[in-house]
Amino acid sequence: MANINLLPWREWERERRQKEFLVNLGGVVLIAVVIVLAAGQYLTQSVENQNARNKFYQNKIAILDDKIKEISTLQRDREELLERMRVIQQLQGNRPIIVRVFDEMVQTLAKGVHYTKLEMLNGQIALEGVAESNNRISALMRNVDGSDWFAEPNLKSIKEDEDNRIYGSGASVFDLTFRQVNPNDDSEEEEG
Fold first, then answer.
1. Cβ distance 148 to 183 under 8 Å?
2. Which pTM was predicted?
3. How many domains does the chain have?
């Protein structure tokens, strides 16, 4: 048989396979790089989208926080207005009572007595006055005790006033306290 040398063919086949392997390896590396870059780009885009959503939500939350603050301010203002309305209603309700108290003060005033100072605090009335005599003070206390609008007269002090210009040397200066009651109020009758 003829002398055939198969060695160069094997060498050529080996070189071809090696070149094919390197081309395939380069293709795989290229595809892997493209996949990694695409995945990186996708993840970057996803992160940016999520950051944009987070910023959107933070803006909406800030708007809602402002509205919540506004609501709490409005609620506080509402409570203040309701309290003012209650005070005004209470004052409006007590207006006729004050007029009645002053009317009753005039009706209980005994002859020969006049008031120099009058204070009312929490239903307690304190007055200072000058009387022609101690008997006039007693008459005043009886009138106060007999009134439907006043209760518990208490004479704190009584002093002679020798130099009184109105009533003369027998005049007396006195301090008297008593409680204002409402005869139309059933709760005070039940307590007493």
1. yes
2. 0.48
3. 1
